[in-house]
Structure prediction request, 359 residues.
Amino acid sequence: MGEKNIVVVGAGVAGLTTAFLLSKNPQYKVTIAAKHMPGDYDIEYASPWAGANYMPVSARGTPAEEWDRNTWQPLFDLAKNHPEAGVHFQRTEIYNRKKDVSSATAAWFADLVSPNPWFSTLFDDFRQIPKSELQPGVDNATCFTSVCINTAIYLPWLVSQCLKNGAIVKRAVFKHIADAAAPGVHHSGRPADLVVNCTGLSAAKLGGVEDKTVVPARGQIVVVRNPAPAMYATSGTDDGPDEACYIMTRAAGGGTILGGCYQKGSWESQPDPNLAIRIMQRCVAICPELTGGKGIEHLDIIRHGVGLRPVREGGTRIEKEKINGVWTVHNYGAGDGQSRSASTQILHAGLYHVVANAI
Prediction:
């Protein structure tokens, strides 16, 4: 096959993981070209705002289920053997209320909150929590040990692995996806043989792609210093159909994430103070240990944050396409089905097959 020059556009978790996996092949010479890089905090750049964790929300029998299955073992390995990646094990409790069934959050979490989800066989300690142990209003709940990722550590770790494998990382802004194949973008100075499009929300406006099925699903969080004994997620709240309740404590001093909401179509970049109050109230109610049984005034706030999940109506796009004579492999749109699980380190086995067929 010979050496192939590949340009990966985007340095979020999807782009960096794609570049990392491709750079393991010595015949692939990878350049990562992106507008935003780890260390940046911008409303267009979703990955730094992610909690993040492995809570599979993909639907049973879909390609996303397979991607989620393939993601668990590498994450398990990172948590067990590579503490420098910022991934650690954490007990997880998922609560379901039948009255939430028609809400946006319940639709998003439909498989996650099921009493018998497809992923139950992935975890050795998966169990249903007895009804007697649940708070009033909760109809069923499950418990298992999963992982939480500190993206402030994990994203730079991915960059370090790419660099270790010989990949080159550079800033670039493209008006058209085919521009990424132009001479001078790839570090060889030659035109790229392949472009991988990992532009997330920007895929909606990037020339040559302009996928109008990609829309933001706004999430708002409060980051606090208070540790939580576990990760938590619920099927919905009493505060509105697009509001959610989840808690996760990041590895290595990353603070505890309190969320949230799922506001589809909203581009608002600034935190809503009233929503922040509701988020904190819900989280303290579901996990009193956060404040020792006291009120939200005992939460030690680090910051408020807003991120835009890159949702694609038809699900994650993993396919090849020739654009202006250049093979392009698309890998974007994971914000809905896997925004808080597999997309945080998207390990699509199918991506290798698509890339191989394109070059």
